[in-house]
Each structure stands twice: as C-alpha cells, then as structure tokens.
Amino acid sequence: MFLASMGASVFMSAEISASFGRNKLGYADRAEDSDPPEVGIGIAMGAFRGVFVNYLWLRANKAKDKGNYYEAIDLSKTITKLQPRFPRVWAFHAWNMAYNISVATNTAEERWQWVNAGIRLIRDQGIPANPGDLLLHKELAWIYVHKIQGTMDDANQLYKRRFAAEWNVILGSPPKFDLNNRGRDKAVADYVAWLKRIADAPNSLEDVAKSKPIVSELVKRLKDEVGANLDSSEDRIRILNGIELGRSISRLSANLRGVAMPRLEGSLVTLLSDETLFPAWEVVVPHLRKRVLVEDYHMEPDRMIEYTRKFGPIDWRHASGHAVYWAQRGVDMAQGRVGTTNAGDFDFLNTDRVVIQAVQDLYRSGTLFFDVLKPDHYLALPNPHFIRTYRDCLQDMMKREQAYFMAIRGNDGAKNPYNMYKAGYENFTRDAIAFLYRRGDKEAAQNFKVQLLADYKNNKLNWNDPELERQLEMPLEQFVVDQVKDRITSPEIARAEVVGSLYGAFTALLTDDRAQYESQMAYAERFHEAFMSQQYRQVGVDEKMARMEVMPKDWTEAQTTIFASVLNFLGIEEASIIYNRVPEDTLRSMAYDEMSMAMKAGMDEQAKARGTPNFDTLFPPPAGLAAHREKVAAKRAAQTKKADTELK
Prior knowledge:
Blueprint: H1 2-22, H2 37-44, H3 49-65, H4 69-82, H5 87-101, H6 108-129, H7 134-148, H8 156-171, H9 184-199, H10 205-211, H11 214-226, H12 233-250, H13 266-273, H14 278-296, H15 301-311, H16 319-335, H17 348-365, E1 367-370, E2 378-381, H18 385-409, H19 411-415, H20 422-438, H21 442-457, H22 466-472, H23 476-484, H24 491-508, H25 514-535, H26 555-569, H27 572-581, H28 585-610, H29 615-618, H30 625-647
Antiparallel strand pairs: 1-2
Helix pairs in contact: 2-4, 3-4, 4-5, 5-6, 5-7, 6-7, 7-16, 7-17, 9-15, 11-14, 12-14, 16-17, 17-18, 18-20, 20-21, 20-23, 20-24, 24-25, 24-26, 26-27, 26-28, 28-30
C-alpha cells in the first residue's frame, strides 16, 4: 500500500506541475534588473508575500485617489509581477492607462497610445495569466465599447480611425456586399468563409512550405531583400501593412495615380509584383494573419467564426465587434465554473449588458467604409443585419439570468426572474423601426412594431406601461415621428435619421419617384443641420474632428459619401439607374472616383471575359468631373501646405 501511494504521488505531482505551468499559476521567484525594489522585497518575504502585496495594493489605491497615476501604475506593475493571478490589479492598472492618464495628455495621438496600452495590458498579459476570469474579459470589452466606440472622449473619432486601420491590416478588408444576395444569412456565410481561410491556415512556416515549395523561396527573399523575419511580430505586421497598401494602390484608376500616397518599401513592392511568387503569397498571407491573431493578439480564429455565426457579419475593424468577442468569451469561459455555492461570484449580468450594448452599436454603426490609403476618411452606417441579433441575444440572456437567480435565490428566482433589459430592448426596437421606415423598408418597420406590441401584450419583459401600448397602436408614420421629435441631439438617432432618409431618397429613384426623392433629401438635410448646429463642438485635443462628428459636418460631403456607399451596396443594375437619375451633377462627380476605386477594375475585367457592359458604360463620367478633380487637388494641396507650415 505504501509503495502504491508513493507511486501515485509521483504521478500526481507530475500532473499538478504540468497544470501549474499550463495555467500560469506560478509567481515571480527572482527579480529582474529592470524591476522596482519592491519586487525583490516581495520575493524575499516568502510566505508573507501576500501581506506585502496587500500593502502595495492600498498604496496604489491611495496614489490613484490623489491623482498620482504614474506612481499607481508602477505599484500595479509590481503587484502583477508578484501575484499575476490577482485580476483586479490588472483591471485597475489598465483603467488608469486607458482612462486616467490618457485624458491627462495633450494630443489625440498621445491619448490613443495610452488607450491602446490599457487594451494590450489586459488582452496580452492579464487574460493569459487569468484565462477564465470574467472580470478581466468584461473590463477589456468595456474599453472597446465605451472608450473607443462611444462618444464620451473628445478624441473618440481618432480612436475609431486608428482602430479600423490597425485591423484592416491584420485581417484585410472584409467581404464585399454580394450584389445578387444581400440577405443576412448570405452575409454571415461570406464572413465565415473569409475567416475560415485564416483559421484553416497552417500554424507553422514549415507546414506552409510543405504545401507549396515556392514558399521557401519567398521566405528567403523576404529575409535577404526586405530584411523581414516572419517569426518577428513586428515584421509580420510590417509585411501585412505593405500588402494592404499595395492592394489599395492597385485598385486606383490611372487618373488617380497622381494623388499623394503612403510610401511602400521598394523591395517589398518587387516581391509583391513578382508573378512567380503569387502562389506563395496565397498561402503565406493567411498564415501570417493567423499568427498575428493567435500569437500577438491572443484571439482564436475558430471562436471568431463561432461568434460570427451566432451574432452576425461582424466587421472586425469596428471596436464593438471586439467587445462582443471578449465579453462573450468571458461568459463562455466562466459558465463551466459556476455552481450553486459560488454563483454570486460571477457578474454575468453586467457582462451580458456589455454584449447587448456592443450588438446595439453594430446595428447603429456596423457598416464601415474605410480605406487604408485615406485613414482619416471613415464612414460608419447602420447595419440592419444586427436588428435580429439584438432580440436573439436578449432571449438567451433572459434564460441565463433566470438560471442565475434561481441558483442564488432558489425558487424565488424562477417566480420572479430578474430583468434588466426591458428599457434597452424597447428603445432599441423603437429606433430600429424609425430607421427602417426612413430607408423605405416600411414592411419590416411595421413587422417590428407589431412584434414589440405583441411582446408588451404577452408581458414577456414585465411591462406595465399603458402609454407604450397607446403609441404602438398608432399608425406607423405617426409612431416614427413621435420617436425622434425630442431626440435630435442624439448622435445615433441623427445618424440613423439622416442615413435612413438618404437611403430612402436614392432608392426612390429606382421607380423614378422624384417627389419622394425631394422629400427625403430635404428631411435629411434639415435633420443634419439641426444636429450639427446643436451638437457640433470643436475640441482642443483633436483639431481635425469633433467629438460628436458621427457623420461629415459638411452637408455636401455627407450626402455624397452616403450616396457612394449606397451605390456600392446595391446591385450593379440598380446602382446604375440611381447614378444616372440623380439630379445633382455634383453628387455624381464626387461619387465617381469613390465608385471607380471599388468597382471599376472588377467590372472592366468581367466585361472583357463575358462581354458585359464596362464601368464607364453604366457609370459614365459626369460633365463636371474634371472641374471637381481640380477642386479636390487644390484643396489637398492647401492641406498639405498647411501641414508643412505647422511642422516647421
């Protein structure tokens, strides 16, 4: 028996040691040269390390309360070094950087660096050290959904552009709209296929090389000619950045090649242009993207696919897509550890709230138009695919909340399920109805109104609001008017009203309904003017963009940008009809080059192969195009001169 016990203990010790390493349960056992003296003291205290860490934690909180944020950061670093399995310190540390220190800096770019530092701390260090901790997942998701995607920070518009640029490089541009099938299921399938190429890529360069021998030559030439090592995180991003810039530049038509563009490394251009290496690039690029996701950003491509299927076609250049990912991951990781005795230790309610808010953001602004060649040009439009997602998520969360409260309250939880979502669901659905109505989809708007009324009458969310029932029984048009009359200053309402009305105006031209076009255009312009007059405030931290600039301040630029976006979204035939029927030549002139970049190459190639009409046949250059280009060039030259003067 004694020998058997000894043998079992040896086996168990090995298993415990392996688990200890796998789950990063170890603490620092030696101080590095760069560590503050407190690290060495804490290590030397041995069994009293916990007492010393508590003392440091109290000091860090006092330093934060006094506004000594840098001291608080130094103390937080020490604590995370001594006790990496202390989640609250990681959250405290990241919050200081993303919120307290960021707003104390002088420029928008400096703010972005600190916000990004807070994100990286939790994502790259805190969560890997505490892989199942719900708090850290929620805190990371909150930075994405509130600090970046929200409008509270004066520099939020720059955050959105920098974030979109970063993820445009990492994943490349997302799938284009399917011109023949614009349904939600098709969009989800396209986004899953896009991510699956990355998820299915080999994990190692050796395996990539086995798939195509030409890969070895590309890797060697990248090292010899570009000085790039694909095992280097910095070099992987450098190469992907060059690839995305090269692809964007290649889309430009000849008459646009003269515009100022980012400089590409000549040696990398040579490799990208070498046709013999194209087969190698086809397998190397997905491999690089996968390694960046897994090794540098600690994200799981398979999980991204799972959440795309669950939530909808997430554009990962949108910060709220990442909020959904991390908050839902936290919920999924934590659920396996919940029991009747510890249910109260998990904050599922507030984490679910982050998920539902992020889904709401993806509806309100989840259709992004962004180009790495023009990083300051960023347009975020509503994405109706996420309207259904919101309701689906709500049903799942209500079931989880009921189970959660049954666990901590017994049968009382089943009789009175705790509900914190009623107001949010009601407001979201009201707004979605108004948007669908403005964009001309009155049938969908009416269906959602009927559904909301049914939910009220069935008391699904414990409503007791006779006024709501009265409103929901109004005619659709009156209901919509009532939704927005007192909410002109809301940035999300303004964007939905303006975008929805412009969409409705342009699509009215499909039936040549000029009266509807004029009416919708006039409404959009009035709403745009009212919002900008009341909410547009320039702030000192970012001279280029205002905090509430959720759409271009200039009306002509706003309607033109949305015009080009609508045409890119529609099928070729529909887009051509609208383009040629729109009365304003200015709109065509301003939209022509945007559309040319997105559509011309593919249409002209198809025209040669299939004999279909080429781009200029369906979208003839407008009469004022040359004058418009001269005006744009002069404006660009003036901006460049101003920037050069400021640098001097």
